[in-house]
Design brief:
mainly alpha; flat; 7 helices; single chain; about 180 residues
Length: about 180
């Protein structure tokens, strides 16, 4: 299962790079669009592999839980990662504007930190949904309990991220003088 996760991560970046290269270097807009639209198919493939393994009698373990984490994070952060890569690729290879820098101080930084935490929370929730789907498709709650082990440490991380993110609201970082 770990191999499938790694293969999907590599597939994500390969398809993304191919789509951006096709768009900006080869100037083939339609092909580029098709390649970029195929990026989410990597997630579908991982979902299919994980479900097939579990339904086929495979023992549920941490790797299946990590696959759910990968899917949850991909659903929530995938568009943002694609936009990030697109801005940099366009700037480097197509004469586009330099990507805007994230705010480093003040209310703008605090607002960005809160938005980032909300996305983190949404990824956590999306992962719980994926784990629920795994559980329903396997049809045996007892057998899928090990999958849910990823949620506890990640829940702690979400809480820590909340404290750090909202600290920028309570104690905003000031401009250096």
């Amino acid at each position: 299962m770990i191999v499938a996760i790694i293969a999907c991560e590599v597939g994500f970046w390969v398809l993304l790079a191919a789509g951006l290269a096709t768009r900006y270097l080869l100037r083939r807009r339609r092909l580029s669009t098709a390649l970029l639209w195929s990026v989410p198919l990597v997630d579908v493939a991982l979902l299919a592999v994980a479900v097939a393994d579990l339904r086929g009698g495979g023992e549920a373990h941490l790797a299946h839980g990590l696959a759910a984490v990968y899917l949850g994070v991909s659903v929530v952060f995938g568009h943002r990662m694609i936009r990030w890569a697109d801005q940099r690729f366009r700037h480097r290879f197509a004469g586009g504007p330099a990507p805007a820098r994230a705010p480093r101080t003040g209310a703008a930084r605090a607002a960005r930190e809160r938005r980032d935490w909300l996305q983190h929370l949404l990824a956590y929730a999306a992962t719980a949904v994926v784990l629920g789907v795994f559980t329903l498709l396997v049809g045996d709650v007892e057998r899928t309990l090990p999958l849910w082990s990823v949620m506890k440490p990640w829940g702690v991380a979400v809480i820590v991220d909340f404290v750090v993110s909202f600290s920028y609201t309570l104690f905003p970082r000031r401009e250096a003088r």
